[in-house]
Amino acid sequence: MTLVQTEAGPGGAPAPGGRPRESFSAWFQRNRRRNLTFGRISFFLVFLGLPLAIYVLLVLNPFVQAVQISLTDWGGFDNEFNYVGFANYAQIFSNEAFLTALRNNILLVVVLPIVTLVLSLALASIVTVGGASHGEVKGLRGSSFYRVISFFPYVVPAIVIGLIWGMVYNPRGGLVNGFLTAIGLDAFGSFPWLGHPRTAMGATIFVIVWSMVGFYMVLFIAAIRGVDPSIFEAARLDGAGRFRTAVTITIPLIRDNVQTAWIYLGILALDAFVYMRALNPQGGPDRATWVMSQELFDTAFVANKWGLASAMGVVLALVTLAFAALVFLINRLTGAEKEGGYQ
Amino acid sequence: MSNPNFRRRDFLRGSLVAAAMVPFGGALASCASGGGGDEAAPETGGGEVTENNPFGVAEGSTVDAVIFKGGYGVDYVEFAAGVMGGVVGVTPKISASTAIATELQPRFAGGTPPDLIDNSGAQAIGFNTILDQLEDLTDVIDAPNYEGTTIRDTLYEGVLAPGTFGDKLAAINYVLTVYGVWYSSSLFEENGWSVPTTWDEALELGAQAKEQGKYLFCWGKQAATYYQTLAIESAIMQGGDEVRLALENLEPECWSKPAIQDVFAKLEQAVSAGYFAPGGAGTDFTVAQAQWSNEQLAILYPSGSWIENEMKSQTKDGFAMSGFPGLVVDPATAQMGDWLHSPAGEPFIVPSQSANPAGGKELLRAMLSKEAATKFAEEKLAPTVVRDTVPADGFGSTALQWQIEAVEAAAGKVFTYNFTTTYGMNQDQLVVWNSFLDGSIDAAQLTSDLQGITDAVREDDSIEKIEVS
Fold first, then answer.
1. Secondary structure (3-state) at B379
2. Do B209 and B324 fall within a single domain?
3. CB–CB of B185/B322 below 8 Å?
4. Exposed, middle or buried, B311 (CB in 10 Å: 0-12/13-18/19+)?
5. What is the mean pLDDT of residues A153-162?
6. What is the pLDDT of residue B434?
7. Any idea where the domains of chain A sit in the sequence?
8. Touching check for A285 and chain B: CB below 8 Å?
9. Is residue B404 part of a domain?
10. What is the spatial distance between Cα B129 and Cα B392, in angstroms, rounded to a whole number?
């Protein structure tokens, strides 16, 4: 656990071998004299050089190229292009469709992680420490059953989830409107949940949350299981209720996991391509659910403007990085360091 | 690890060294947009040019064809390849794709495109992007078919127009698509309804349908622009060729032409009178189409002739599918009231840079043979651009009967338009049309939004424009 730290941070105490810190060149010289055996070199080559070369070729190289292409007017189907400087970036930010998509992504990135995390934390607490208020600290009766049930949606591929929910939301004969009219709300007889500007995004977020809650619940259950049960017992002896325990004991102790989950969900929210494509391939009413990845896809493969599409990709990457940095910052500001919760 | 001196920190430092070295190892030398051959395509395929081998396909060569796998599948090209196999000794390699642009973009960029492509579907490659990389297919049209007649003389009139860009025949469209409004003639007979020819008659029919608890039209979210197609057809039939040219050439104020505005006004009436089945903006288009073909909740549906094949499994028994070409506002002043919107679809292209362009052309020639074209019409219940391949009974399909009737009645008076696909505008237009059919915007807003989309393309200098005349 995080409270037990055996190793000092970078630049801290001497390395395990007890050597003092030395300059890189000195280290290199010394090692060349002493340790440059065949076994050592071949080990470096196979376990370091090869993966690193693959990583640079297949991961870093496309990133660099995307930045390069974003500065051109490349059409994608030939080898002719001109460098146009930052014209593509200027065009992105005067493109109404892209700005709408950016706004939708920001809405998603704010709402989706919070809703999903609150729900999955609540469920995880209930099935681990929310059980009977006497005896051993444990979850609700039958909690393993609930765990399987709520994990189930995660097993289904996103595209299938999108198609299923597309039918559930179908205005005529869909489950939602069928249920609403059955309980007497006739106004919903043919209400287009995915086709009304006010409900399209909400309905879409519901689907994504539904598909993700189970996975993060399982993640948090594992994290809570890693906490010493005596802490929960102590809290209960001190008279803390279930809600108080969750907020002041559970969350601070698993904040690393919460932060990781938050970043994952944020990246999902900034992408969201599959769900959007399945539920509202044309972007929804008034582009209510149009996201950046869809605009990027269309710019590249329909409009054949690869330079512009690459610029969108770069912007999307920067927004994602900014989001991750923001989550780290918030975690620090809310006292992660103070409690030694993460390093 | 057997080496006791081998420590974790050393390992990590080693990785820093490796990281610093790798870029110089040439890993960065490759480039996605680099490479590709510049050599000009040979005039012939390297084989001897004979009467049976007009393009000089090399004996024993391979033809690499990538075919869009949509409503028509790919088996018809395989069949044609079998026909071709009897003529010259080439090996066909036919692959199916549902996303032509996505799949072939790297091959075009790398200079190794296939020999024959069916550039169709939602993800077709825009012609303005690849036009100068394509073979001129005039020599295919001027070659004899497998029965000995010059291919040009076996085709319906006007079918080469959609594939002609400037003076270059860059694509041969294989399937004849007939656009119109589709209905069940059996249902109409049962209810004593007559087929409308004007918008006023259609609105009247809408009122009659409403009495039966039915709607005049229905729509699905991905197909809202089918009503744009209907509106443009109606406006061209009413206002003549100048309407088509104004739209095609992205003229300012083109959507404000009186002929278009009159149709929009009629559509607005239909929307506000509740003649559209509600909820279309949230309905999947196949579900919406089944509301027409199976549930018969709506009685008319504007679409192309693929609709019969597309809804085959979801069409009510006894649904005698038929169609009519469009609706005019005022028959007395209609300029092109007897014309038909019937473009040839499924554009087949031959990239010049491919390994065996002559082989691509030969496969195309095989497809245009009477044998292969008849087989296509019979199996897909859709006519090809090759004339006289459909018997009078339409292989038992009422919809195919009507298509052949309509095409023969029009006798060359066919029009088409391409601007929405040429400039990839459909995505933006869908948003506007869903809002309009939903009743959340009126005809004036519809006009200005559509004009905005047209203007944006016209003003964007990075988009190559294709002049239409």
1. helix
2. yes
3. yes
4. buried
5. 91
6. 93
7. 25-89, 95-333
8. yes
9. no
10. 41
**If contacts are CB pairs under 8 Å, which of residues 165-204 in chain B contact chain A?**
none
- Of B33, B224, B440, which has the smallest distance from its Cβ to A74's Cβ? B33
Q: Contact B88/B51 with Cβ under 8 angstroms?
A: no
State pLDDT tens for residues B250-277.
999 999 999 999 999 999 999 999 999 9
Is A52 within 8 Å of B30 when comparing Cβ atoms?
no
Q: What is the pLDDT of residues B405-433, one digit of tens each?
A: 998 898 889 998 989 888 878 888 998 99
CB pair distance less than 8 Å for B105 and A305: no
Residue B1 counted as domain residue: no
* pLDDT, mean over chain B: 86
* Number of domains observed in the structure of chain B: 2
Q: In the prediction, which pLDDT does A17 show?
A: 47
Looking up residue B383, the CATH number of its domain turns out to be 3.40.190.10
**The architecture CATH gives domain A95-333:** Orthogonal Bundle (1.10)
Q: Does A229 contact B at CB distance below 8 Å?
A: no
The whole-number pLDDT of residue B295 equals: 93
Contact call for residues A228 and A80 (beta carbons, < 8 A): no
Range of the domain at B428: 180-341+417-459
The reply to whether ipTM tops 0.95 is no
Query: Is A148 exposed, middle or buried, given 0-12, 13-18 or 19+ CB atoms closer than 10 A?
Result: exposed
Radius of gyration (C-alpha) of chain B in whole angstroms: 26
CB contact under 8 A, B279 and A167: no
How many Å apart are CA A295 and CA A305, to the nearest integer?
Answer: 11
Do B431 and A49 lie within an 8 Å CB cutoff?
no
